[in-house]
Design brief:
Layout (H helix, E strand, L loop, with lengths): L9 H24 L2 H21 L3 H29 L6 H24 L4 H23 L2 H20 L4 H23 L2
Helix pairs in contact: 2-3, 2-7, 4-5, 5-6, 6-7
Length: 196
């Protein structure tokens, strides 16, 4: 039999709601200062340029070189942002950040294994699978980080990916440049402007 607790007084309920709101504010501030916005802006730009190149550049080898350069720049930029945040924001606790970092490293390794063994021959299918895998990472990160923005962003871009792949296959890359990369850039800009 469960114990009966006395009901909350209006003042206790107000204090509990204020604590919840303060905690939510701290999480948003940690996300903004923890670099999430910079990672979204960086990788949104990589997607915008990479998928744009896929649409406008006809030579598959050149597309591959463009993506390789963009991915390397994205990884270097990610490393720089992590280093910069660590150097400039000493007050941030990095315990959860390192867990999230290890999640993304593990996620990347498994993604490479899936692609290596699946070996999709169609470039558009490969792009779609990699994009879905990226959004899976955003959704899981959002769940771990308790970020409705990341979960919502991951699910929204997932819907864009599926719609673009099924309904607009001839324009899938342009669609992904605008709605995939564009969504990440808009979310990063929103965090920078609203969550400080």
């Amino acid at each position: 039999m469960s114990k009966s607790h006395p009901p909350l007084t209006p003042d206790e309920a107000r204090q509990a709601l204020e604590l919840i709101e303060a905690t939510a504010r701290q999480m948003r501030r940690f996300a903004a200062y923890g670099g999430m916005a910079y990672f979204l802006l960086l990788w949104g730009t990589v997607w915008l340029l990479g998928f744009g190149a896929n649409h406008f550049v006809q030579d598959p080898a050149m597309r591959g070189r463009i993506w390789t350069v963009l991915d390397l720049l994205g990884l270097a930029g990610t490393g720089y942002v992590v280093w910069w945040l660590h150097k400039t924001r000493q007050g941030i606790r990095w315990g959860f950040g390192s867990t999230l970092g290890w999640f993304w490293i593990t996620w990347m390794g498994y993604g490479l294994l899936f692609i290596y063994f699946a070996q999709p021959q169609d470039g558009t299918l490969l792009s779609m699978l990699l994009s879905l895998w990226a959004m899976y990472g955003y959704v899981v990160s959002g769940l771990l980080f308790r970020s409705r923005l990341l979960v919502g962003l991951g699910l929204t871009v997932t819907a864009f990916i599926v719609v673009g792949y099924l309904a607009l296959p001839a324009y899938f890359n342009l669609w992904m440049a605008l709605f995939g990369g564009g969504s990440l850039i808009v979310a990063g800009g929103y965090i920078l402007s609203s969550w400080r």
